[in-house]
Amino acid sequence: MDKLINFFKILSDETRLRIMILLYHQELCVCEICGILELSQPKVSKHLAKLRDMGFVRDDRQEQFIFYHLNLKDPVLKDIVQKIVDNIENYPVIQRDVKRIAQKEKFLQLCKR
Amino acid sequence: MDKLINFFKILSDETRLRIMILLYHQELCVCEICGILELSQPKVSKHLAKLRDMGFVRDDRQEQFIFYHLNLKDPVLKDIVQKIVDNIENYPVIQRDVKRIAQKEKFLQLCKR
DNA sequence: TGGCTATATATTCATATGGTTATATAAGCA
DNA sequence: TGCTTATATAACCATATGAATATATAGCCA
Fold first, then answer.
1. A43 CB inside 7 Å of strand C
2. Do A14 and B4 touch (CB under 8 A)?
3. Interface confidence (ipTM) of the complex
4. CATH of the structural domain B2-102, one choice from 3.50.50.60, 1.10.10.10, 3.30.750.210, 2.30.30.40
5. Cβ of residue B29 near strand C, that is under 7 Å?
6. What is the pTM of this model?
C-alpha cells in the first residue's frame, strides 16, 4: 500500500502531475521539460529527483543531456495515468503541455535564457 | 485539474485512503469507521471533515449518528477508486478493512471504550 | 433535567513540503 | 585549458500537514 500512497503523493502536486503525463508520452530531457512547462530548472530537477527516488522514473545520460522516462511496472499505477490521458480534454493545462511536446527541439540549447 | 489534484491529495494519506475505500462499499457512521479502522474518533473526524470540505463525501444525520457516504460524480475519480478495489488483494490492510465492515454493529455504542 | 453517547472542533506541536537563490559538477567545444 | 551549457544539489524560508489532547455540542434516555 505504501507504493500506492507514494504514487498519490507524487500526483498530488501540479508540477509532478504535469511531468508524469509528459513522460507518459515520451522520454524527455530536463531542459525540454522546463521549456514545455515554462518552469525553472531547479524546480523541475527537484521534482524529478523525487520521482527518481520513489522509483517512478529512470534517467539516462546521453552526452550533455539527461533523459528521463517513466518506470511504472504496476498495472494499477499505469492504468491511473492512462485514465487521465484518456480524459485529457478535462484538463486544459495538461492538454496544452502535451501539445507542446511537438516543439521540444525549440527548448534545447535554450536552458539559460 | 485542481479537483484531480485535491483527489490525489486525499488519497495520499493512509487514513483517508482507507476511509474512501470503506465508503466506496457502503455508508458508515463515524464510530463504525473508528471501530473498523481501529483509529481514534478525533483522527477519523478530522479526516472526514477534510473529505467533506473537498466535496468527496456527504454526511447525513440519523438520530445520534452521522453517516457518511461517497460523493464522486466525476467518472475519472470513480474509476480510480474502482481500480484499487478491483486489485484489493494487493493491499492487505485495505482488504482487512473491507472484511471488517461485516462486523460494524459491534462498533456501535462502543465509541467510548 | 441530568447524564451518556456520538461527533465536531480548537489547540498545540513536530515534521514535511515546496519555492527561490546560490553553488557545484559534468560534458562539449573553441 | 577555459568557457558554456545542462543538470544536480544545498541552504534557507514560509507554509501545510498530521497527530494528540482537550473541549464543545447535539441527541437520546432515565
1. yes
2. no
3. 0.94
4. 1.10.10.10
5. yes
6. 0.94
